[in-house]
Design brief:
Layout (H helix, E strand, L loop, with lengths): L7 H12 L2 H13 L3 H29 L3 H8 L4 H31 L11 H9 L14 H18 L3 H11 L1 H15 L4 H9 L9 H14 L6 H6 L9 H32 L4 H4 L6 H11 L4 H35 L4 H15 L8 H44 L7 H26 L8 H23 L4
The structure holds phenylalanine.
Phenylalanine binds next to helix 1, helix 2, helix 5, helix 11 and helix 16.
């Protein structure tokens, strides 16, 4: 008998736990900042409604209906299609490797917070890039291993392992702590943020729509991939989680609740970050657009800075990094769980604990590349390629498999037979036409953009590495499709 979540609410908690994570507090704000603030919000919200929720319904539905993780579920549609599930899980695997590294940074900050005077108080930016990362000046000078990051990474992997080793029951227990805690802390930071001098300028930058940039294709693809990332779509995670549901459980409601909770938390986190950026702009007499580092370092400069301005700075700092950690860990273990589920579905004989141990150990070892002095650059490249291409490709193939091969109507009637809120025929249209067409167009346009110059001005060898990261899941999936042996 397949394992089960201990209750329906725990499943929704788990889905929200997976969705809400560093993507909301770390990735969403830096994407928004990078694409000019308010300009990013519109495509993000549109993508959330048009792509996010319908695809979430799809991923939940196939996991729950077929009672299998992503590979097994697609295999039930057609045995060749298991390649799609494999591509999704490998993409998730790659993401998890660097996601854990970002968590390792938070752990370092957490530990360093236990001091009377926060060590980054004087210059948060310098502290992050020089002290924590020891960042080299280009991706080509890899330098050595950053031992502090590596040890911290090991700590993260041990924590993840303990959360997943006993299966979904132990995950349920971990979630009861890791969902409420961060939310409370975020609210506290929100109030501190908006009462800082200059906060309003930052917030204005954040919410003022800028319609002129809406024609940039890069913006749209960034928004679409952010939606995939933040809703944990295209990684097989949601399918794996839903496979532990009772086949009769409500799907539509869970999807909508997860989508709204996740979107709302991202937007809320944006207020916190931008009010602080506004403050920083005023303090340094510069404009909002030029004050902070734009890129994956943003959250690690802005938040520590804000924390050092609070009364009882050290206390808040400890709490805040605990927040980031607790937000991230349930997303990280959902990724590991997807990989473990797939292996378990396949082997049946090996104990889950052993599978979890091996998966965690391998991911840790691969993470070493991001724990070098050039780690941040590698992370930026991996993240760019896998989210902009890998996930989008999985999304397209999911729609083709479910919409055209299995029949969107079959899934829709299954969803409606178990859910209180019924979904209309529009869903079939989205899965069959709208989503694949939108994603396909974005993909082509982005591909052309990519050819016109190296992403982020990185050297060509590193761009090839980025493409390799996309090709690994893609080619593995293809091989499985064409080499139909069991
Ligand atoms: N959705 C998570 C976040 O926003 C990240 C994640 C992606 C988790 C994929 C699981 C799978 O942080």
């Amino acid at each position: 008998m397949r394992e089960r979540w201990s209750s329906k609410t725990i499943f929704i908690f788990a889905a929200i736990g997976s969705a809400v994570g560093l993507g909301n507090i770390w990735r969403f704000p830096y994407m928004t900042y990078k694409y000019g603030g308010g300009a990013f919000i519109i495509p993000f919200l549109i993508a959330m409604v048009l792509l996010g929720i319908p695809l979430l319904i799809l991923e939940f539905a196939i996991g729950q209906k077929f009672q299998k993780g992503p590979v097994g579920a697609f295999k039930k549609i057609d045995s060749r299609l298991r390649g799609i599930g494999a591509g999704a899980v490998i993409s998730g695997f790659i993401i998890c490797v660097y996601y854990a590294v970002v968590m390792a940074w938070t752990l370092i900050y957490f530990v360093k917070s236990f001091s009377l005077k926060l060590p980054w108080a004087a210059n948060a930016e310098n502290y992050f890039f020089s002290n924590v990362l020891n960042l080299s000046d280009s991706i080509s000078s890899i330098g050595g291993i950053n031992w502090v990051v590596l040890i911290s990474l090991l700590g993260i992997w041990i924590a993840i392992y303990f959360c997943v080793r006993n299966g979904v029951q132990s995950i349920g227990k971990a979630l009861k702590l890791f969902i409420p805690l961060p939310l409370i802390l975020l609210v506290v930071l929100f109030f501190r943020g908006i009462t800082l001098p200059g906060a309003l300028t930052g917030i204005f930058y954040y919410i003022k729509p800028d319609f002129t940039v809406l024609f940039s294709s890069e913006l749209w693809i960034a928004a679409a991939s952010q939606v995939f990332f933040t809703l944990s779509l295209g990684f097989g995670v949601m399918t794996a989680y839903a496979s532990y549901n009772d086949p009769k459980q409500d799907i539509t409601k869970s999807s909508i609740i997860t989508g709204i909770a996740d979107g709302a938390i991202s937007l809320f986190a944006g207020f916190v970050v931008f009010s602080i950026i506004g403050y920083m702009a005023q303090a340094t007499s510069s404009t909002v657009a030029e004050v902070a580092t734009s890129g994956p370092g943003l959250a690690f400069v802005v938040f520590p800075q804000a924390l050092s301005l609070m009364p009882f700075a050290a206390v808040f700092s400890v709490l805040f990094f605990l927040t980031l950690f607790s937000l991230g860990i349930d997303s990280a273990f959902s990724l590991v769980e997807a990989v473990v589920t797939v292996i378990e579905d396949k082997t049946k004989k090996i104990k889950k604990e052993t599978i979890a141990l091996v998966v965690c150990a391998v991911m840790f070892c691969l993470g070493t590349i991001f724990a070098t002095d050039a780690g941040l650059y590698f992370l930026d490249i991996f993240d760019h390629f896998i989210t902009n291409f890998g996930l989008i490709l999985v999304g397209i193939f999911e729609c083709i498999a479910v919409g055209w091969i299995y029949g969107a109507e079959n899934i829709r009637s299954f969803v409606n037979s178990v859910s209180d809120w019924k979904i209309g025929k529009w869903w079939n249209v989205s899965i069959n036409y709208l989503i694949p067409i939108i994603l396909g167009t974005l993909l082509i346009v982005q591909f052309v953009n990519e050819l016109s110059g190296n992403y982020g001005g990185y050297p060509s060898w590193s761009i090839y590495l980025g493409w390799t990261v996309v090709l690994v899941p893609f080619v593995t999936g293809l091989v499985m499709v064409f080499n139909n042996k069991n």
